[in-house]
Write a structure and sequence with these properties.
The structure holds 2 protein chains of 2 kinds. Chain A contains no helices and 12 strands. In chain A, a hairpin with a 4-residue loop joins strand 8 and strand 9. The mean pLDDT of chain A is about 90. By secondary structure, chain B is mostly beta strands. In chain B, strands 2, 4, 5, 6, 9, 10 and 11 form a 7-stranded mixed sheet that branches. The model of chain B has no long low-confidence stretch (mean pLDDT about 90). Classes of the chains: A mainly beta, B mainly beta. At the A-B interface, strand 6 and strand 10 of A face strand 5, strand 9 and strand 10 of B.
């Protein structure tokens, strides 16, 4: 069965510093996709970044980058130059690349950016 | 472009009462998802629609939960009767085509249900 683990229930980071949010996953599939979502207090899940299991380069989107280590089954999110607006819950998620896909979410990490 | 719309945003009911949530996906998105999010946890899929067909409802508690997506656009999720354990946030999401390698789901703001 697929499973996502996020071992950091809460994290603090100083404004303008970088922070890494950990994510490990368990799957027997060879083809899958990994996602990170941000959920501010307003409740909406906001898509941040995607990494395919066969992508050779780590994904980057602006201040977000994904440190993908396939052999270790980890997909850590790196946020550079943290901003106050980055304070939110962050969820790592995984999807099998089949015709009937299902996205599995981790338990989330709460990030607080300190001014 | 309008995002995924959900209503109501908040609902408080007494146990054993029925409740319904409504979702309007992004225009043109043929796939619609209903998720349940308990406090402090990630969302869990309840049901997924491809147009008007429910293609994955394996996690939907069918004794009390039902859903429909008439005409393949709007969707309604119903609970009857509600139990205390149903208190949670119900999220709706939509995507353009679930067969794509990169299939971003767009989420609505959710409905926070409190069962007393």
């Amino acid at each position: 069965a697929q499973k996502i683990t996020q071992t950091q229930p809460g994290m603090f980071v100083q404004e303008k510093e970088a922070v890494t949010l950990d994510c490990t996953y368990d799957t027997s599939d060879q083809s899958y996709g990994l996602f990170w979502y941000k959920q501010p207090s307003s409740g909406e899940m906001i898509f941040l970044i995607y990494q395919g299991s066969y992508d050779e380069q780590n994904a980057t989107e602006g201040r977000y980058s994904l440190n993908f280590q396939k052999a270790r089954k980890s997909a850590n999110l790196v946020i550079s130059a943290s901003q106050l607006g980055d304070s939110a819950m962050y969820f790592c998620a995984m999807r099998k690349k089949t015709s009937y896909d299902k996205v599995i979410f981790g338990p989330g990490t709460s990030l607080s950016v300190i001014p | 472009e309008a995002g995924v719309v959900q209503s109501p945003r908040y609902k408080i009911i007494e146990k054993k009462q029925p409740v319904a949530f409504w979702c309007n996906p992004i225009s043109g998105h043929n796939t619609l998802y209903w998720y349940l999010q308990n406090l402090g946890q990630g969302p869990e899929l309840l049901i997924r629609y491809e147009n008007e067909e429910a293609v994955d409802d394996s996690q939907l508690p069918k004794d009390r939960f039902s859903a429909e997506r008439l005409k393949g656009v709007d969707s309604t999720l119903k609970i009857q009767p509600a139990e205390l354990g149903d208190s949670a946030v119900y999220l709706c999401a939509s995507s353009l085509d679930s067969g794509l390698d990169y299939n971003e789901q767009f989420f609505g703001p959710g409905t926070r249900l409190t069962v007393l």
